[in-house]
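FORM 7B: Structural annotation worksheet

SECTION A. Query
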Amino acid sequence: MSRLFRNENIKIWILFAVTFLTAAISYGYLPEQIPVHFNAAGEIDNYGGRITVFLAPLIILIMILAAEFFRNADPKKSSYNKFSRQYYMIFFLVSLLMFVIQLYTIAVSFEVRIFNINVIMPAAVGLLFAIIGNSMPKFSQNYYVGIRTSWTLADEDVWLKTHRFGGRIWFVGGLLMILSAFLPNPFKMIVFFAAVAALVLIPIIYSYFVYKNKYK
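SECTION B. Predicted structure
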């Protein structure tokens, strides 16, 4: 963790500060128990102490530290210089998602609810995957980020082809997740998890065939 503050991660630090200040300001006004989990229908099914409002900034801080640990621990750490902007963008997007969840939790605690969480989350997660998929072709070979199979790690050409193809799959899968947010409940879960399965399995299978075709 030689450098905790970089030009590329300054946005994440700002988001950490915003979520922490949001938690600190709202803490004194929150009820003793606030929502910590919602079921598939968007209904509250678990509560926790109001101290849990600080969970979002804590997770963001952990991600900031993890980003630097992974980058410096990776045997291919020199590769990160080639896709540093895309690497930190992933952590920023997840941090932004945590901030959205924090705001939603605070709003629900004050009995203010504009959208149901079962619409917000699939749409937000889908947007996250679509953006990452659009950036995936720029990922350089490494051991922590991207489609890391034995075949992509064994051959840089296989890595590049898999991430070009996989990026398209993630982008389309992300759009399907966004679409699923507006479907009726039974279909919402089916489409969402089918998209998740596709963006996990299809690039892995593709990397195998690209490798086998190259070394047959």
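SECTION C. Observations
The longest helix spans residues 185-214. Residues 115-216 form one domain.

SECTION D. Sign-off
Analyst initials: ____
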